[in-house]
Amino acid sequence: MLCGSILEAQPNCEVLKDDISCYKSCNKAWRAIRYKQGSFKSQRLFDESIDLCPSFAYSYMEKAVPYLKRGEFIQWKKLIDQAVELSPSKYLGYRGWCRIQFLRDYEGAIKDIERLKQEVSYDIGYCQNGNYHLEVALGLCYKELGDLEKAQSIISNHVHSSNYSSGLFDYYHLGVIEYELGNYQTAKNILETQLENNELAEVYYYLALTFEKLNRKDEYSMALNKSEQLYLNGNSMYDNYTEPIDKLYLSDILKEKSRKLKIDKK
Amino acid sequence: MIAEIFKKMKKIIYLSILFLAFGCQSEKYKDVGDIPFDPEWDDPKFELCQENLIKQYYIRKSSDTAPTYKGEKRGLEEEVNSKYSYAPKEDQTGYITIRFIINCHGKSGRFRIEEMDFDLEPMKFDVDLSSQIMDIVKGLKDWSPRTKGARKYDFYQYLTFKIESGQITKILP
What we know:
The complex is a heterodimer.
Chain A: H1 20-32, H2 40-52, H3 57-69, H4 73-86, H5 88-103, H6 106-119, H7 134-144, H8 148-159, H9 170-181, H10 184-197, H11 201-213, H12 217-232, H13 250-265
Chain B: H1 2-28, E1 55-56, E2 68-69, H2 72-83, E3 94-102, E4 108-116, H3 127-138, E5 143-144, E6 146-148, E7 151-153, E8 155-164, E9 167-172
Parallel strand pairs in B: 1-8
Antiparallel strand pairs in B: 2-5, 3-4, 3-8, 6-7, 8-9
């Protein structure tokens, strides 16, 4: 999931025209993003941009991105912390999401997103890739920390809010949570809602598990077969950078099939 | 005989100067994430197909086949978990990241380690733990490189181990 370079693809330098140094700094950043991300030239231009205007948060954030993507997290953190300090309303949500995506640091992400909610009076917005509203990301943190009730409450409230705009996987995650809470009929309904948006191997996998709990054996088998077929056709959760939350693999599906086979043979 | 030895020595000195000059230059002007060869740490037998064309694991065209591990992420997790053993110890908590290169033949080398706490501040794990992680990563033999048609490419990869009380709780990315 691209969690950085489209955060603020191009800074608007015109608003900085009254401050010559910061205006020049902004133009340096403009030049920096035209080079390959993380290249020596690009990083050097960000350094020059920061030297010209040490309060220009954008350059810290952009300079940090390649460190994040390439696994140099100590360097990333130093830079992104500076960006957050200079412009918390702009970068808290971004840092929070990156903590989830790249580090599975759910406690840190909760702190960032909650702080953002206190900082701003407007909608806290989406993760950079647009896949998740940050409210859903918050719910996912609680899910991964094992607080399923809180996760369910946060995500459910969000998807039922008046100005809700459907995220790519919101109903899938909510369906998984309902399944794990033992609310199988609700899980089935929610997973089927997800299928109206996009057919994924993962959704059919959990739908199969749900059918099994509801004693609907034929539908269980059909859903599991469909899950396998979708996976083999490439219709599963995927991200260039990191493993998505609740991502499943072919071996998970095959393991479930073989488990069921063993039970049926007994 | 002496002239021949002198000639050979001249050649070695020339090559060493060339290597040092090139080595220093590539270190100075390297991109984020680059891992230049370091004779102190790296196996000189580890060869790359194209030293100047090593892509990051996430960079490829949609028509390329993504680099992967045998059995996908689960295969990698199972292999790591089957080899890793460390008694629970509360202060052994944080992240260990190992960055490395996988060449076009699926072999790995040039390993670099970074250890940090959950605030991403540098820290040192027990050597028994960190060296075990390093050895396990070095022992992962079933990588498949990025491919484009019949052509295979070298690529940079990293693995981050989230460690809580000495136990691996997540392997990233």
